[in-house]
């Protein structure tokens, strides 16, 4: 049994140990939080690296399809260039935006949205047909009245000419008679850069009114088929080129995300080691303080 003289010293020692234990408990909580955050970032890094590998594999196929599609689109454009075909000015214009349904690919969709909004500032009566849900969601908030047609389920795989032909059939069935159709898509410059460009598809009246149209000796009966086939060629070109840009942008985005995750892992690893060292130092101080207090009793 302790004497009355020893009780105040023991009470003071207990209060000191309690004051030291409180911040130590907080250090343990912080250490667990850092460890959990570090584990979460490492898992994210694994996901982004895997998505980069998948995008790189798909990019090879997309670039092959893009090269093939340019043959279709550029041949049609060459015919209209040599025929000196021009759009009629007394009718409306339809803007077809070749987007996709998938994200995680940087600003590839928002770039076309900004270009479309600039065109709408010049011509507010412009009608829009959107291929893909991404640009539809962005333009639906600002310009829903201009949207006359939309397509979903695009971008899941490499586009085919059958997909473009189905889209062209739906567009030609619109009740409005358009002077021309401007198809906006992302042009593939290289693996790091792309830009929104426009290729034009003309109406039957514009094709028939071309200055050098007679040189091609095309019958009037097949003019409608020529116009629809040229529209499908241009849409296929736009979809294939845009798909290649999307895969390239997704690979770059996942590469940047993996690098950022690696930087965060390094920082949190250093913070974890320092916090753990601080906790160990605090425990040593408690043990030495407790041993010293016990030796003095």
TrEMBL record:
SUPFAM superfamilies: ATP synthase (F1-ATPase), gamma subunit. It is a peripheral membrane protein. InterPro entries: ATP_synth_F1_ATPase_gsu, ATP_synth_F1_gsu, ATP_synth_F1_gsu_CS. One of its GO terms (cellular component) is mitochondrial inner membrane. It is found in: Mitochondrion inner membrane. Signal peptide: none annotated. Keywords: ATP synthesis, CF(1), Hydrogen ion transport, Ion transport, Membrane, Mitochondrion, Mitochondrion inner membrane, Transport. GO terms for molecular function: proton-transporting ATP synthase activity, rotational mechanism; proton-transporting ATPase activity, rotational mechanism. The keyword Mitochondrion applies. F-type ATPases have 2 components, CF(1) - the catalytic core - and CF(0) - the membrane proton channel. CF(1) and CF(0) have multiple subunits. PANTHER family: ATP SYNTHASE GAMMA CHAIN, ATP SYNTHASE SUBUNIT GAMMA, MITOCHONDRIAL. Belongs to the ATPase gamma chain family. This is ATP synthase subunit gamma. It comes from Endocarpon pusillum (strain Z07020 / HMAS-L-300199) (Lichen-forming fungus). The lineage of its organism: Eukaryota, Fungi, Dikarya, Ascomycota, Pezizomycotina.
């Amino acid at each position: 049994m302790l004497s009355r003289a020893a009780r105040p010293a023991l009470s003071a020692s207990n209060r000191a140990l309690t004051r030291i234990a409180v911040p130590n408990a907080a250090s343990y909580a912080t250490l667990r939080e850092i460890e959990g955050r570090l584990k979460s970032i490492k898992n994210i890094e694994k996901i982004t690296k895997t998505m980069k590998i998948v995008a790189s594999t798909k990019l090879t196929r997309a670039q092959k399809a893009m090269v093939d599609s340019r043959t279709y689109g550029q041949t049609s454009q060459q015919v209209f260039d040599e025929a000196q075909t021009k759009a009629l000015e007394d009718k409306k214009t339809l803007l077809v935006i070749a987007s996709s349904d998938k994200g995680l690919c940087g600003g590839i969709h928002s770039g076309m949205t900004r270009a479309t909004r600039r065109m709408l500032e010049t011509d507010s009566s412009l009608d829009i047909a959107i291929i893909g849900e991404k640009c539809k969601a962005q333009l639906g908030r600002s310009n829903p009245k201009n949207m006359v047609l939309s397509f979903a389920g695009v971008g899941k795989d490499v586009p085919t000419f059958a997909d473009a032909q189905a889209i062209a059939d739906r567009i030609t069935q619109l009740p409005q008679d358009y002077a021309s159709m401007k198809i906006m898509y992302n042009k593939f410059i290289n693996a790091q850069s792309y830009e929104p460009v426009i290729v034009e598809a003309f109406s039957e009246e514009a094709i028939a009114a071309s200055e050098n149209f007679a040189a091609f000796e095309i019958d009037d009966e097949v003019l409608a088929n020529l116009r629809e086939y040229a529209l499908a060629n241009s849409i296929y070109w736009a979809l294939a080129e845009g798909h290649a840009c999307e895969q390239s942008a997704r690979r770059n985005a996942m590469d940047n995300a993996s690098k950022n995750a690696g930087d965060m892992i390094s920082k949190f690893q250093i913070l974890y080691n320092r916090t753990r060292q601080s906790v160990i130092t605090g425990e040593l101080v408690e043990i030495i303080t407790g041993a010293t207090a016990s030796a003095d009793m």
